[in-house]
Amino acid sequence: MQITSRFTIAIHILVAIDYFKDMDRVNSEFLAGSTGVNPVIIRTVISRLREAGILSTQRGSSGANLTRPLSEITFYDIYRAVDSVDEQEGLFHFHEQPHPDCPVGGNIHTALDGKLDDIQHVMEERMKTITVQDVADDVLKAVREKSKEE
Amino acid sequence: MQITSRFTIAIHILVAIDYFKDMDRVNSEFLAGSTGVNPVIIRTVISRLREAGILSTQRGSSGANLTRPLSEITFYDIYRAVDSVDEQEGLFHFHEQPHPDCPVGGNIHTALDGKLDDIQHVMEERMKTITVQDVADDVLKAVREKSKEE
DNA sequence: GATAGTTGTAATATATCACATTACATCTTT
DNA sequence: AAAGATGTAATGTGATATATTACAACTATC
Q1: A92 CA, D24 C1': separation in Å?
Q2: Taking CA atoms, what residue in A is nearest to B101?
Q3: What secondary structure does DSSP assign to A14-42, as a single string?
Q4: Nearest-CA distance from A55 to chain B in Å?
Protein backbone atom coordinates (compact mmCIF):
# COMPACT_ATOMS: atom_id res chain seq x y z
CA MET A 1 0.00 0.00 0.00
CA GLN A 2 1.00 3.59 -0.42
CA ILE A 3 -0.04 6.97 0.85
CA THR A 4 -2.12 8.66 -1.86
CA SER A 5 -0.31 10.85 -4.37
CA ARG A 6 -2.64 13.68 -3.34
CA PHE A 7 0.03 14.31 -0.74
CA THR A 8 2.94 14.90 -3.16
CA ILE A 9 0.56 16.64 -5.56
CA ALA A 10 -0.41 19.11 -2.85
CA ILE A 11 3.21 19.88 -2.05
CA HIS A 12 3.99 20.31 -5.74
CA ILE A 13 1.01 22.66 -6.14
CA LEU A 14 1.97 24.83 -3.23
CA VAL A 15 5.57 25.16 -4.39
CA ALA A 16 4.36 26.02 -7.90
CA ILE A 17 1.84 28.60 -6.67
CA ASP A 18 4.63 30.32 -4.79
CA TYR A 19 7.23 29.93 -7.53
CA PHE A 20 5.08 31.36 -10.31
CA LYS A 21 3.08 33.83 -8.29
CA ASP A 22 4.30 36.90 -10.20
CA MET A 23 4.85 35.31 -13.59
CA ASP A 24 1.88 33.32 -14.79
CA ARG A 25 -1.79 32.74 -14.33
CA VAL A 26 -1.52 29.73 -12.07
CA ASN A 27 -4.86 28.09 -12.71
CA SER A 28 -5.83 24.45 -12.45
CA GLU A 29 -4.96 23.91 -16.10
CA PHE A 30 -1.45 25.24 -15.56
CA LEU A 31 -0.95 23.14 -12.43
CA ALA A 32 -2.26 20.09 -14.25
CA GLY A 33 0.49 20.64 -16.82
CA SER A 34 3.21 21.03 -14.22
CA THR A 35 2.17 17.98 -12.19
CA GLY A 36 0.96 15.78 -15.03
CA VAL A 37 -2.30 15.26 -13.18
CA ASN A 38 -5.87 15.81 -14.32
CA PRO A 39 -7.15 19.37 -13.69
CA VAL A 40 -10.17 18.08 -11.76
CA ILE A 41 -7.88 16.26 -9.37
CA ILE A 42 -5.93 19.49 -8.96
CA ARG A 43 -9.13 21.31 -8.07
CA THR A 44 -10.16 18.74 -5.49
CA VAL A 45 -6.73 18.84 -3.87
CA ILE A 46 -6.95 22.62 -3.81
CA SER A 47 -10.43 22.32 -2.31
CA ARG A 48 -9.02 20.33 0.57
CA LEU A 49 -6.22 22.79 1.09
CA ARG A 50 -8.80 25.55 1.15
CA GLU A 51 -10.96 23.68 3.68
CA ALA A 52 -7.84 23.33 5.81
CA GLY A 53 -7.30 27.09 5.67
CA ILE A 54 -3.98 26.82 3.85
CA LEU A 55 -5.03 28.87 0.86
CA SER A 56 -8.01 30.75 -0.48
CA THR A 57 -9.54 30.82 -3.93
CA GLN A 58 -12.27 32.67 -5.75
CA ARG A 59 -14.85 31.03 -7.92
CA GLY A 60 -14.45 32.21 -11.48
CA SER A 61 -11.24 34.05 -10.79
CA SER A 62 -7.91 32.47 -11.55
CA GLY A 63 -5.26 31.57 -8.99
CA ALA A 64 -5.01 30.90 -5.28
CA ASN A 65 -3.63 32.89 -2.39
CA LEU A 66 -1.63 31.38 0.41
CA THR A 67 -2.96 32.38 3.81
CA ARG A 68 0.49 32.04 5.36
CA PRO A 69 4.07 31.70 4.15
CA LEU A 70 5.33 28.30 2.98
CA SER A 71 7.65 28.25 5.98
CA GLU A 72 4.59 27.91 8.19
CA ILE A 73 3.03 25.03 6.26
CA THR A 74 4.32 21.68 7.47
CA PHE A 75 4.09 18.32 5.77
CA TYR A 76 1.78 17.30 8.59
CA ASP A 77 -0.62 20.13 7.76
CA ILE A 78 -0.86 18.85 4.21
CA TYR A 79 -1.04 15.22 5.24
CA ARG A 80 -4.08 16.09 7.35
CA ALA A 81 -5.58 18.42 4.77
CA VAL A 82 -5.63 15.86 1.96
CA ASP A 83 -6.56 12.92 4.20
CA SER A 84 -3.45 10.96 3.38
CA VAL A 85 -4.34 8.65 6.26
CA ASP A 86 -7.88 8.60 7.60
CA GLU A 87 -7.82 10.16 11.04
CA GLN A 88 -10.37 7.70 12.45
CA GLU A 89 -8.98 4.54 10.89
CA GLY A 90 -5.30 5.13 11.49
CA LEU A 91 -2.26 4.03 9.53
CA PHE A 92 -2.60 0.32 10.24
CA HIS A 93 -5.54 -1.73 9.11
CA PHE A 94 -6.33 -4.03 12.02
CA HIS A 95 -8.01 -7.31 11.13
CA GLU A 96 -11.57 -6.69 12.11
CA GLN A 97 -12.85 -9.71 13.96
CA PRO A 98 -10.35 -11.23 16.35
CA HIS A 99 -12.25 -13.82 18.36
CA PRO A 100 -13.30 -12.25 21.69
CA ASP A 101 -13.34 -15.57 23.56
CA CYS A 102 -9.79 -16.50 22.60
CA PRO A 103 -7.18 -15.36 25.15
CA VAL A 104 -5.09 -13.94 22.33
CA GLY A 105 -7.96 -12.68 20.18
CA GLY A 106 -9.70 -11.11 23.14
CA ASN A 107 -6.66 -9.12 24.22
CA ILE A 108 -4.78 -8.39 21.04
CA HIS A 109 -6.21 -4.89 20.72
CA THR A 110 -5.24 -3.98 24.27
CA ALA A 111 -1.75 -5.29 23.64
CA LEU A 112 -1.21 -3.84 20.17
CA ASP A 113 -3.13 -0.60 19.67
CA GLY A 114 -0.80 1.58 21.72
CA LYS A 115 2.25 0.26 19.90
CA LEU A 116 0.76 0.95 16.49
CA ASP A 117 -0.20 4.46 17.59
CA ASP A 118 3.39 5.00 18.68
CA ILE A 119 4.73 4.13 15.27
CA GLN A 120 2.24 6.33 13.48
CA HIS A 121 3.04 9.10 15.93
CA VAL A 122 6.79 9.24 15.26
CA MET A 123 6.04 9.45 11.57
CA GLU A 124 3.62 12.32 12.06
CA GLU A 125 5.96 14.16 14.40
CA ARG A 126 8.68 14.01 11.80
CA MET A 127 6.23 15.46 9.29
CA LYS A 128 5.74 18.43 11.55
CA THR A 129 9.43 19.31 11.28
CA ILE A 130 9.48 19.69 7.50
CA THR A 131 7.90 22.64 5.73
CA VAL A 132 6.96 23.33 2.14
CA GLN A 133 9.51 26.14 2.20
CA ASP A 134 12.22 23.49 2.62
CA VAL A 135 11.07 21.97 -0.65
CA ALA A 136 10.79 25.33 -2.39
CA ASP A 137 14.36 26.12 -1.31
CA ASP A 138 15.67 22.87 -2.75
CA VAL A 139 13.77 23.38 -5.98
CA LEU A 140 15.36 26.81 -6.36
CA LYS A 141 18.77 25.39 -5.59
CA ALA A 142 18.33 22.71 -8.25
CA VAL A 143 17.13 25.26 -10.80
CA ARG A 144 20.25 27.34 -10.20
CA GLU A 145 22.55 24.32 -10.38
CA LYS A 146 21.16 23.46 -13.76
CA SER A 147 21.47 26.98 -15.11
CA LYS A 148 25.14 27.04 -14.07
CA GLU A 149 25.83 24.00 -16.17
CA GLU A 150 25.20 25.89 -19.37
CA MET B 1 -5.00 4.35 2.73
CA GLN B 2 -3.90 1.86 5.31
CA ILE B 3 -1.12 -0.65 5.78
CA THR B 4 -2.51 -4.11 4.99
CA SER B 5 -3.99 -6.10 7.86
CA ARG B 6 -1.55 -8.87 6.98
CA PHE B 7 0.73 -6.99 9.36
CA THR B 8 -1.50 -7.22 12.44
CA ILE B 9 -2.57 -10.71 11.38
CA ALA B 10 1.06 -11.84 11.35
CA ILE B 11 1.67 -10.44 14.83
CA HIS B 12 -1.50 -12.08 16.10
CA ILE B 13 -0.47 -15.40 14.57
CA LEU B 14 2.99 -15.35 16.10
CA VAL B 15 1.66 -14.52 19.55
CA ALA B 16 -0.91 -17.31 19.25
CA ILE B 17 1.62 -19.88 18.05
CA ASP B 18 3.72 -19.11 21.09
CA TYR B 19 0.80 -18.87 23.51
CA PHE B 20 -0.78 -22.17 22.55
CA LYS B 21 2.35 -24.08 21.70
CA ASP B 22 1.87 -26.75 24.37
CA MET B 23 -1.88 -26.82 24.48
CA ASP B 24 -3.49 -27.16 21.09
CA ARG B 25 -2.87 -28.13 17.51
CA VAL B 26 -2.26 -24.67 16.17
CA ASN B 27 -3.15 -25.18 12.53
CA SER B 28 -4.42 -22.68 9.99
CA GLU B 29 -8.00 -23.52 10.92
CA PHE B 30 -7.35 -22.74 14.55
CA LEU B 31 -5.57 -19.47 13.73
CA ALA B 32 -8.40 -18.54 11.38
CA GLY B 33 -10.76 -18.88 14.33
CA SER B 34 -8.62 -16.79 16.63
CA THR B 35 -8.05 -13.99 14.11
CA GLY B 36 -11.41 -14.11 12.35
CA VAL B 37 -9.60 -14.34 9.04
CA ASN B 38 -9.93 -16.88 6.24
CA PRO B 39 -7.62 -19.92 6.65
CA VAL B 40 -6.13 -19.43 3.18
CA ILE B 41 -5.09 -15.92 4.13
CA ILE B 42 -3.54 -17.34 7.28
CA ARG B 43 -1.54 -19.79 5.18
CA THR B 44 -0.27 -17.11 2.82
CA VAL B 45 0.79 -14.91 5.74
CA ILE B 46 2.56 -17.91 7.25
CA SER B 47 4.19 -18.55 3.88
CA ARG B 48 5.68 -15.09 3.92
CA LEU B 49 6.89 -15.51 7.47
CA ARG B 50 8.51 -18.77 6.41
CA GLU B 51 10.18 -17.16 3.40
CA ALA B 52 11.54 -14.53 5.77
CA GLY B 53 13.00 -17.26 7.97
CA ILE B 54 10.86 -16.38 10.98
CA LEU B 55 9.24 -19.78 11.29
CA SER B 56 9.25 -23.18 9.64
CA THR B 57 6.40 -25.47 8.69
CA GLN B 58 5.93 -28.93 7.31
CA ARG B 59 3.58 -29.77 4.50
CA GLY B 60 0.86 -32.09 5.77
CA SER B 61 1.93 -31.77 9.36
CA SER B 62 0.14 -29.41 11.69
CA GLY B 63 1.72 -26.40 13.34
CA ALA B 64 4.69 -24.11 12.86
CA ASN B 65 7.98 -23.73 14.69
CA LEU B 66 9.54 -20.38 15.48
CA THR B 67 13.16 -20.23 14.40
CA ARG B 68 13.99 -17.73 17.13
CA PRO B 69 12.33 -16.40 20.28
CA LEU B 70 9.64 -13.73 19.99
CA SER B 71 11.99 -11.30 21.70
CA GLU B 72 14.15 -11.42 18.58
CA ILE B 73 11.36 -10.76 16.10
CA THR B 74 10.78 -7.06 15.60
CA PHE B 75 7.80 -5.32 14.05
CA TYR B 76 10.13 -4.30 11.26
CA ASP B 77 10.95 -7.94 10.50
CA ILE B 78 7.26 -8.66 10.09
CA TYR B 79 6.57 -5.47 8.17
CA ARG B 80 9.19 -6.55 5.63
CA ALA B 81 8.13 -10.18 5.64
CA VAL B 82 4.51 -9.50 4.73
CA ASP B 83 5.30 -6.64 2.33
CA SER B 84 3.32 -4.09 4.28
CA VAL B 85 4.95 -1.43 2.14
CA ASP B 86 6.54 -2.37 -1.16
CA GLU B 87 10.29 -1.99 -0.78
CA GLN B 88 10.74 -0.59 -4.29
CA GLU B 89 7.78 1.76 -4.33
CA GLY B 90 8.11 3.23 -0.86
CA LEU B 91 5.52 4.54 1.55
CA PHE B 92 4.52 7.58 -0.50
CA HIS B 93 2.94 7.36 -3.91
CA PHE B 94 4.59 10.08 -5.97
CA HIS B 95 2.52 11.48 -8.83
CA GLU B 96 4.10 9.87 -11.82
CA GLN B 97 4.54 12.47 -14.50
CA PRO B 98 5.65 15.85 -13.21
CA HIS B 99 6.51 17.90 -16.27
CA PRO B 100 10.28 17.73 -16.87
CA ASP B 101 10.45 21.12 -18.59
CA CYS B 102 8.75 22.97 -15.76
CA PRO B 103 11.21 24.39 -13.21
CA VAL B 104 9.09 22.96 -10.42
CA GLY B 105 8.09 19.72 -12.15
CA GLY B 106 11.63 19.08 -13.32
CA ASN B 107 13.12 19.40 -9.85
CA ILE B 108 10.41 18.23 -7.50
CA HIS B 109 11.88 14.74 -7.16
CA THR B 110 15.32 16.08 -6.28
CA ALA B 111 13.75 18.36 -3.71
CA LEU B 112 11.26 15.93 -2.21
CA ASP B 113 12.51 12.34 -2.38
CA GLY B 114 15.01 12.61 0.45
CA LYS B 115 12.44 14.17 2.75
CA LEU B 116 9.92 11.42 2.09
CA ASP B 117 12.58 8.80 2.70
CA ASP B 118 13.37 10.48 6.02
CA ILE B 119 9.79 10.20 7.17
CA GLN B 120 9.50 6.57 6.17
CA HIS B 121 12.81 5.90 7.86
CA VAL B 122 11.82 7.19 11.31
CA MET B 123 8.74 5.00 11.13
CA GLU B 124 10.76 1.93 10.25
CA GLU B 125 13.37 2.62 12.89
CA ARG B 126 10.67 2.78 15.52
CA MET B 127 9.38 -0.57 14.28
CA LYS B 128 12.77 -2.06 14.95
CA THR B 129 12.48 -1.21 18.64
CA ILE B 130 9.29 -3.18 19.26
CA THR B 131 9.24 -6.97 19.41
CA VAL B 132 6.47 -9.52 19.25
CA GLN B 133 7.47 -10.52 22.79
CA ASP B 134 6.31 -7.07 23.93
CA VAL B 135 2.88 -7.89 22.57
CA ALA B 136 2.89 -11.39 24.05
CA ASP B 137 3.75 -9.91 27.45
CA ASP B 138 0.88 -7.46 27.28
CA VAL B 139 -1.54 -10.16 26.17
CA LEU B 140 -0.54 -12.26 29.17
CA LYS B 141 -0.90 -9.27 31.47
CA ALA B 142 -4.39 -8.63 30.16
CA VAL B 143 -5.38 -12.27 30.54
CA ARG B 144 -4.29 -12.18 34.18
CA GLU B 145 -6.07 -8.91 34.86
CA LYS B 146 -9.29 -10.38 33.60
CA SER B 147 -8.95 -13.58 35.62
CA LYS B 148 -8.44 -11.51 38.79
CA GLU B 149 -11.76 -9.78 38.26
CA GLU B 150 -13.68 -12.98 38.92
C1' DG C 1 -0.99 -48.87 3.11
C1' DA C 2 -5.50 -46.64 3.30
C1' DT C 3 -7.58 -42.84 5.50
C1' DA C 4 -7.97 -38.46 7.62
C1' DG C 5 -5.88 -34.26 8.52
C1' DT C 6 -2.98 -30.66 6.88
C1' DT C 7 -0.23 -27.44 4.10
C1' DG C 8 0.80 -24.88 -0.35
C1' DT C 9 -1.01 -22.52 -3.99
C1' DA C 10 -3.68 -21.41 -8.13
C1' DA C 11 -7.89 -19.46 -9.71
C1' DT C 12 -11.76 -16.67 -9.15
C1' DA C 13 -15.02 -13.35 -6.91
C1' DT C 14 -16.11 -9.10 -4.58
C1' DA C 15 -15.53 -4.69 -2.60
C1' DT C 16 -13.08 -0.60 -2.13
C1' DC C 17 -10.34 3.06 -3.60
C1' DA C 18 -7.40 6.12 -6.48
C1' DC C 19 -7.28 8.60 -10.30
C1' DA C 20 -9.11 10.12 -14.92
C1' DT C 21 -12.64 12.16 -17.42
C1' DT C 22 -17.01 14.44 -18.94
C1' DA C 23 -20.24 17.69 -17.97
C1' DC C 24 -22.17 21.65 -16.29
C1' DA C 25 -23.64 25.21 -12.95
C1' DT C 26 -21.68 29.27 -10.95
C1' DC C 27 -18.90 33.07 -10.65
C1' DT C 28 -15.47 36.93 -12.31
C1' DT C 29 -13.36 39.83 -15.51
C1' DT C 30 -13.37 42.32 -19.62
C1' DA D 1 -22.74 39.45 -23.19
C1' DA D 2 -18.71 36.56 -23.79
C1' DA D 3 -14.66 34.24 -22.27
C1' DG D 4 -12.23 32.14 -18.78
C1' DA D 5 -12.28 30.17 -14.23
C1' DT D 6 -13.68 27.35 -10.28
C1' DG D 7 -16.63 23.75 -7.70
C1' DT D 8 -18.52 19.51 -7.85
C1' DA D 9 -21.40 15.57 -9.26
C1' DA D 10 -21.41 11.48 -11.93
C1' DT D 11 -19.20 7.81 -14.16
C1' DG D 12 -15.40 4.79 -15.84
C1' DT D 13 -11.29 2.08 -15.15
C1' DG D 14 -7.68 -0.26 -13.05
C1' DA D 15 -5.36 -1.85 -8.97
C1' DT D 16 -5.46 -4.11 -4.69
C1' DA D 17 -7.11 -6.49 -0.35
C1' DT D 18 -9.48 -10.04 1.34
C1' DA D 19 -12.60 -14.15 0.90
C1' DT D 20 -13.49 -18.41 -1.06
C1' DT D 21 -13.31 -22.82 -3.74
C1' DA D 22 -10.61 -26.37 -5.23
C1' DC D 23 -7.10 -29.53 -5.31
C1' DA D 24 -2.38 -31.50 -5.35
C1' DA D 25 1.19 -32.92 -2.19
C1' DC D 26 2.50 -34.41 2.06
C1' DT D 27 2.30 -36.58 7.08
C1' DA D 28 0.63 -39.23 10.81
C1' DT D 29 -2.16 -42.76 12.43
C1' DC D 30 -5.04 -46.64 12.52
Answers
A1: 35
A2: A34
A3: HHHHHHTTTTS---HHHHHHHHTS-HHHH
A4: 19
Put simply, whether the predicted model's pTM sits higher than 0.85 gets the answer yes
Cα–Cα distance for residue pair B6/B66, rounded to 1 Å: 18
Name every chain A residue with its beta carbon within 8 A of the beta carbon of B141.
Answer: 111
User: How would you classify residue A53: left for phi > 0, otherwise alpha for psi between -120 and 50, otherwise beta?
Assistant: left
Indicate yes or no: strand C within 7 A of the C-beta of B44.
yes
Kindly determine whether the C-beta of residue A40 is less than 7 Å away from any atom of nucleic acid strand C.
yes
From first to last of its 150 residues, chain B has per-residue pLDDT tens of: 799 999 999 999 999 999 998 777 889 999 999 999 999 999 999 999 999 999 999 888 888 999 999 999 999 999 999 989 998 899 999 999 999 999 999 999 999 999 999 999 999 999 999 999 999 999 999 999 887 776
The Cα B133–Cα B142 span in angstroms is: 14
